[in-house]
Design brief:
Blueprint: H1 5-16, E1 20-27, E2 37-44, E3 47-51, H2 60-68, E4 70-73, H3 76-86, E5 94-96, H4 97-103, H5 111-119, H6 139-150, H7 152-166, H8 169-184, H9 205-225, H10 229-232, H11 235-246, H12 258-272, H13 293-313, H14 317-320, H15 323-332, H16 334-338, H17 342-348
Parallel strand pairs: 1-4, 4-5
Antiparallel strand pairs: 1-2, 2-3
């Protein structure tokens, strides 16, 4: 583990001298309320290093080196978000092996599946949800973490050669640039809707008021205990409790103990006592506008064009354009087409 400033400076120098490095991260989202980056893995030729962000070292030399060196990642979105949180600036280049595999027509493009296919290595499973904040890390977790970068560089080399043969390397570059930009977008939580969990749309207004109160109770409990909210109560149990309380049933979950159970009851009772005008309004419908017959015909023509291209290229049709993108082209014309990447536009052709 790299956990001193001197060791980090040495690693940063080695990164700066490389054409590109493999990068992965591990966080503790399954074990705490606010996830934090617990590990940064860096794959170099002949070495896979583990950096400990929890050791109190200044990570700026590492982040500066990563900004100026090409990074190979698999499913880069999460790892980029984690690195941005640590202070990463604008990376010079990102090679996403998942996107690359899909563009070559790979049927299975998970990291473990690609490693098995290309290197005949079966990676161990079952440690994805480990508590990466624990120290010492332990040999099994350390080996698991190193495996996450060990095959990235040779895998990228193989996929890049295949993309060159297919004439699709520029497609990858366009797609990776979009992924880098998308990872920068911070999705703000809307206090008016964040409590509407899966299954809540079936609830009436009074039951929704109860759910809203129980959701906020769960957030307070999770924040105080520094645990993920689902450790306190699952979304399904929240919805079930709201329904039953609205029907006048007594609800006292067995999994809750002592003062936590008491606070649950207090939150439920306060919600049940609200006046009707304090109940949340039902959410506005989000249904897409119905397409006109000419627009439906246009979507069908675009889909036929897309599917024909996907079959010829042996890639997933949704990689060219999902249904929602086709509808946008049909309804918005050039503006809808411009929302796609240039390589996707070239395969769909004119929006007319």
């Amino acid at each position: 583990m790299i956990e001193t400033q001197a060791a980090l400076a040495d690693l940063a120098a080695r990164i700066a001298g490389a054409d590109r490095v493999g990068v992965d991260t591990e966080a503790d989202s399954m074990h705490c309320y606010r996830e934090k980056v617990c590990l940064v893995q860096v794959g170099l030729p002949g070495a896979d290093e583990l950096v400990d962000p929890l050791a109190g070292v200044d990570l700026e030399p590492l982040l500066d080196a990563l900004e100026t060196t090409g990074m190979v990642m698999h499913g880069a979105d999460f790892d980029l978000r984690m690195l941005y949180r640590l202070g990463l600036g604008e990376p010079s280049a990102v090679f996403d092996t998942m996107i690359a595999a899909r563009l070559t027509g790979a049927g299975k493009y998970g990291y473990a599946a690609l490693v098995a296919e290309h290197f005949d290595v079966a990676l161990p499973k079952g440690l994805q949800t480990a508590n990466w904040a624990r120290r010492p890390l332990g040999p099994k977790l350390a080996e698991y973490a190193r495996n996450d970068t060990r095959y990235l560089l040779p895998l990228a080399d193989r996929l890049e050669r295949r993309l060159e043969e297919l004439g699709r390397r520029e497609w990858l570059q366009q797609s990776c640039r979009r992924a880098v930009a998308a990872a920068r977008v911070v999705r703000a939580r809307d206090p008016e809707t964040e409590w509407r969990v899966k299954g809540s749309l079936v609830l009436g207004s009074r039951a929704s008021a109860v759910l809203r109160a129980l959701w906020h109770w769960r957030e307070d409990e999770a924040r105080t205990a520094d645990k993920p909210p689902f450790h306190v109560m699952s979304n399904a149990d929240l919805v079930d409790a709201a329904q039953r309380l609205d029907l006048g049933e007594h609800v006292s979950p067995r999994a809750l103990r002592g003062t936590r159970r008491a606070r649950f009851s207090q939150a439920a009772d306060a919600a049940l006592a609200l006046d009707r005008d304090e109940w949340p309004a039902r959410p506005a419908g989000r249904a897409r506008p119905r397409l006109t017959k000419p627009q439906e015909k246009h979507v069908a023509a675009l889909r036929q064009r897309r599917d024909r291209a996907a079959k010829e290229l042996a890639i997933d049709a949704d990689l060219i354009a999902p249904r929602a993108a086709l509808e946008r082209v049909a309804t918005e014309g050039k503006e809808g087409l411009d929302a796609l990447l240039p390589w996707q536009q070239s395969l769909l052709g004119s929006p007319d």
